[in-house]
Amino acid sequence: MRTSPRSIVRRLSRVLLCVVAAVPAAVVVDAAAAKPAGPTPCAWRFMSDGDVLDVAFPDENATYWVLPYALGANDSIEVSGTYPSARYFSLNTYGTDLDTTDTLRDDQILPDSGSGNPFADPAAQVLPPEQRRRHATLVTGPADHERNEIRALRDGGPPVGFLIIRVYVPDDPASPSGGVPLPQFAYRLGGTTTPVQPCAQPFDPRTLPAPVADAGQWVVDRAIERAASGAFRADTPEATFVNPASTSGLFPNGDNKYIGAVLTYQPGRVAVVRGRAPVFPDTRAGASPTEPGQQVRYWSMCQNDLVSPYPVVACAADFQTDRGADGRYTYVVAAPGDVPSNVDPTVTVLPWGSTDVPKKLLILRNMLPTAAFYPTSIQASQADGTDPAATMGAYYPEVTYCSTATVEMRGYAGCFEGDRR
């Protein structure tokens, strides 16, 4: 028997109920009444970036599309599309605890017959879209990555989860999906294949009536708060980059690791950060994502609010960061009235954000370090449980507070010498 779209909606509703179970009953009734029952099902309804659903420390140079699913024991999901023109993309599955189930990365996804994978073969970058096709299958049991399979469910867990597509640094900044449509999506339920078309527009909570939007925000805050509060706890040292205590429950990406420094605002004071920049493939300038001689696929520095739902303030990705002839970077993180007057071309300014937020979190990300760079990467520090200041060498970011007056009188180097008031 053919599975109806309404049946799929009911399955997806079960996933959403796992998230909204904590909402008071009266609020749920009000939310349900705000929209007629039986919506037309569509895929990739949820999108997150630095503007829409800005939660859980996102990177401004990435866009995340989220799809909840519910599967029976022998069900599967087919995801097919075109390799994007971008620095990086991946398919990731998560349980209802928002922790990783499985990941399939761009260069691991085998192309369809007659197609090429530009993340594994640079020559495929010039192929037309119809020759850059790929597919993957979400399965409920063990997954074989050699067959482009991704595990959808964990043993003993609930029959629901989330699929996230990440795209970092699209070649065309006006196309978050990397110049290609979002993947096609089809359920295989009980032997019947049911296609589900991508949504015309992603869900934006800002378009909902205020009571419904507030209820949704409450749910998101509670879910994210439990995880993020454990990542950088109240006793985290200030103005020092450290490893997070945990990233569980924050939709972590196994290809990305980060360290963070807690910052607090004082008028007339800025934070200055310096370190050596890893070598990266500048895909916006035409480099291949897997060009030889690089140290990481991507890195960035992002300022975030250390308060739920933990939104990003601003990011400077590798290609947006000014570097000196010695390959080193300097950031100044400052409120508008505190930016020094003598900012030079080798300094990248990151906005502080609202000074009413009591604590900020400055995050440095490393993505996919090469084997040669790995010993000095964030990944190695976290794998070994060691202090990144002891293992990252020149690539460890030093951060210090400094008065705007000191910067203007002694330069940024003066912030790391003696009295910095």
Total discrete domains: 2
- The helix content is 10-25%
- Report the sheet-strand fraction: 25-35%
User: Which oligomeric state applies?
Assistant: single chain
Strand order of the largest sheet: 1-2-8-4-5
Instruction: Quote the average pLDDT.
Output: 86
The low-pLDDT segments are 1-39
Give a brief description.
Keywords: Signal. The protein is an alpha+beta fold and 421 residues long. It has six helices and 18 strands.
Descriptive overview:
The protein has 421 residues and is α+β, with helices and mostly antiparallel strands. It contains six helices and 18 strands. It has two domains: 203 residues, Jelly Rolls, CATH 2.60.120; 179 residues, Immunoglobulin-like, CATH 2.60.40. 15% of the residues lie in helices and 29% in strands. The strands form four sheets. Strands 1-2-8-4-5 form a five-stranded antiparallel beta sheet. Strands 7-6-3-9-10 form a five-stranded mixed beta sheet, with no helix packed on it. It is globular and about 70 Å long. The N and C termini lie far apart (74 Å).
